[in-house]
């Protein structure tokens, strides 16, 4: 069993990459480092709304727990059963036509209660508030998501969307660029950055951002189709390489409404 102090502390703040790095540095056994690697990938998949990948990484994480003597410590910090319930709750509401915040909160309960998925659950709640015109609660939810997970680039994008709707175009640009600094291939941030730039009369930059977003969206849609086909054939769990997440993120959430501005006034 490896020395717990070498890698367990970051798990308390859900810093899976740091835990993985410290485990490697401490010479931890291969099954432990593999489990932590899967936890990193799971966390990234949840941020990306890529639930098929999240379940695949979770399956592999559970298998790695069976092979390491550090399983009790990992289980205490990241219970695979609770994670499965949380990811499933997020997946079940994704794309569902829910209009009642109380209904959404009830359906998200496993994800809201789990520290590894709470940020994404708050982001989902923020989307519903925003679509319902409740800007104050939407902003609070997106900010709470970021307070829990500073690398949640979609929550950052959503804050930018609120700024864009409010006419604060420079603030929106700043949020989109911060999101892209975390994940440069997120098409939603590129698309809505194009809107913010257009509103500031920076047409050349706007067009470049829009084209980049279109190219990335097309690439990710092709990848989404490939992953769905693999999932249907039961081959997904072995198709995801370690240390590399296949990014699949939907269109920018509130940005579905905002893209109308790209061609409008």
UniProtKB/TrEMBL annotation:
TPR repeat residue numbers: 119-152, 153-186
Any single GO BP term: protein O-linked glycosylation
Transmembrane spans: 245-263
UniProt keywords, alphabetically: Membrane, TPR repeat, Transmembrane, Transmembrane helix
Protein known as: Tetratricopeptide TPR_2 repeat-containing protein
Top-rank taxon, per record: Bacteria
GO-annotated molecular function: protein O-acetylglucosaminyltransferase activity
């Amino acid at each position: 069993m490896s020395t717990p102090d070498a890698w367990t502390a970051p798990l308390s703040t859900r810093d899976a990459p740091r835990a993985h790095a410290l485990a490697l540095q401490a010479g931890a056994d291969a099954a432990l480092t593999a489990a932590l690697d899967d936890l990193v990938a799971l966390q990234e998949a949840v941020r990306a709304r890529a639930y098929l990948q999240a379940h695949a990484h979770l399956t592999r994480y559970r298998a790695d727990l069976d092979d390491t003597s550090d399983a009790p410590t990992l289980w205490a910090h990241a219970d695979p059963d609770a994670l499965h319930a949380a990811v499933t709750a997020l997946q079940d509401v994704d794309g569902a036509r829910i209009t009642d915040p109380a209904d959404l909160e009830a359906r998200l309960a496993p994800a809201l209660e789990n520290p590894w998925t709470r940020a994404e659950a708050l982001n989902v709640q923020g989307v519903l508030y925003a679509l319902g015109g409740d800007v104050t609660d939407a902003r609070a939810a997106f900010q709470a998501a970021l307070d829990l997970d500073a690398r949640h680039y979609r929550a950052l994008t959503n804050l930018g969307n609120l700024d864009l709707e409010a006419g604060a175009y420079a603030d929106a640009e700043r949020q989109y660029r911060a999101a892209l600094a975390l994940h440069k291939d997120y098409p939603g941030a590129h698309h809505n950055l194009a809107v913010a730039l257009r509103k500031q009369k920076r047409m050349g930059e706007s067009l470049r951002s829009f084209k980049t977003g279109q190219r990335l969206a097309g690439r990710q849609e092709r990848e989404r189709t490939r992953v769905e086909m693999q999932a249907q054939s039961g081959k997904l769990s072995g198709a995801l390489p370690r240390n590399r997440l296949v990014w699949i993120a939907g269109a920018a959430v509130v940005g579905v409404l905002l893209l109308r501005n790209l061609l409008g006034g």
